[in-house]
Design goal:
It is a single chain. It is built from 15 helices and eight strands. It is of the alpha/beta class. The strands form two sheets. A six-stranded parallel sheet has the order 1-8-5-4-2-3, with helices on both faces. The protein has a two-stranded antiparallel sheet with strand order 6-7. Strand 2, helix 2 and strand 3 form a beta-alpha-beta unit. The mean pLDDT is 96.
């Protein structure tokens, strides 16, 4: 179905975060309550808060990666009394996940984390109570232009999704200057995560003409500037911000596929950064998906490789040069764990979105191919 929809007002460019006060004034002309959920309390220039002095502003830092159900519930408890009119999420994907999730939770009576877990599993959120704005400080997730969030549930050995198609951001401010200070490991992992979003959206069952065009451009922009990123060139951050945003716009309509599905238990059990986990899986999944993907040659051209083996070598080089292992054994995985990891890699909404049928046996073979 060639239908594309993304309502997010997106602003891209150095210094564009300075437009936040005027956007908030347009959204809340009566000067309402604004919750800033931030990775770092100094993530935004002080001038922005000075310009918002007529609003009721509450700031809260959230410094946890891969937020859990319990951590989301704690944040909900700490902020629901403030009852914000707008949530401004400033940070990486974890901050975006919590910020957009809160918008679906406010206005509801949720007595404890178990009740929250049940609500997430039910998917019955109704119309979001609060609107939100996304301001990424990493260049990888594209979460500022999507409507779903990942919440982890290690107690139940599961990954949960908060999905509500009414919960797109009102605005996204993608300012490359905010990501310029990322450590190299994080910058490379984030860039490869964005590339995976784009590649997976290209072959996803839910792809369309617009999402495929966005995906190809996202991959070209990212791959054209990976060497610049590894060499610490400032212009690379502009390119990665653009590539991440384009990839987010692509998979906002398609969701992700096998790479993400298989990666979740790798992150949960071994702490492999999400971008590193999905990027190691790209080559073997591309090999598997080639028979079921039209015009794969266009994607290979955007990736600047001729086949899956070259892609594996190229991604491995990026990971190693940024100080990260490019194999599961390098991350501390045990070979005897692969069958269990394979059985946990069949994530609903991701595995069944893959163009080629995914099975536990196929996943185990993929994990074997990146083990050592």
């Amino acid at each position: 179905m060639n239908r594309y929809y993304n309502p997010v007002r997106t602003v891209l460019g150095r210094g564009c975060v300075s437009r936040l006060p005027e956007i908030l004034e347009e959204m809340e002309p009566e000067k309402g309550r604004i919750l800033f959920l931030m990775w770092n309390e100094k993530a935004l220039p002080e001038e922005i808060f000075f310009r918002l002095k007529d609003f009721q502003v509450k700031t809260m830092t959230f410094e946890v990666s891969n937020p859990t159900v319990e951590q989301l519930y704690q944040t909900y408890e700490q902020t629901r009394g403030f009852s914000p009119d707008v949530v401004v999420a400033v940070g990486g994907g974890s901050i975006m996940d919590v910020g957009k999730s809160l918008c679906c939770l406010y206005g509801k009576e949720i007595p404890d984390a178990d009740a929250l877990r049940a609500l997430i599993q039910s998917g019955s959120y109704g119309t979001p109570h609060t609107r939100w704005i996304g301001i990424p400080t990493t260049a990888g997730t594209g979460s500022e232009v999507t409507c779903w969030a990942t919440i982890w549930d290690p107690e139940k050995d599961a990954k949960r999704s908060v999905e509500n198609h009414e919960n797109y951001a009102c605005a996204a401010l993608v300012d490359p200057q905010l990501a310029a200070g990322m450590p190299l490991r994080l910058a490379v992992s984030s860039a490869l995560d964005a590339a995976a979003h784009a590649v997976e959206s290209y072959w996803a069952r839910g792809s369309n003409a617009v999402s495929r065009a966005l995906a190809l451009q996202a991959v070209r922009v990212i791959m054209d500037h990976m060497e610049d990123l590894l060499q610490g060139k400032q212009e690379a951050h502009d390119a990665m911000a653009q590539g991440s945003m384009l990839a987010g716009m692509a998979f906002s309509n398609t969701k992700t596929t096998a790479c993400h599905s298989i990666s979740y238990p790798l992150t949960m059990h071994y702490g492999i950064p999400h971008g590193a986990a999905v990027s190691m899986l790209l080559a073997p999944v591309l090999q598997m998906n080639t028979p079921g993907t039209k015009n794969m040659d266009r994607m290979l051209d955007a990736l600047q490789v001729r086949n899956a083996q070259e892609l594996k070598s190229r991604i491995g080089s990026f990971l190693r040069r940024s100080g990260q292992p490019d194999t599961l054994v390098g991350w501390g995985a045990k070979k005897e764990d692969l069958p269990q990891l394979a059985s946990q890699g069949m994530t609903k909404g991701r595995a069944d979105n893959n163009p080629v049928e995914l099975t536990s046996d196929k996943i185990e073979n993929i994990l074997q191919s990146i083990y050592a």
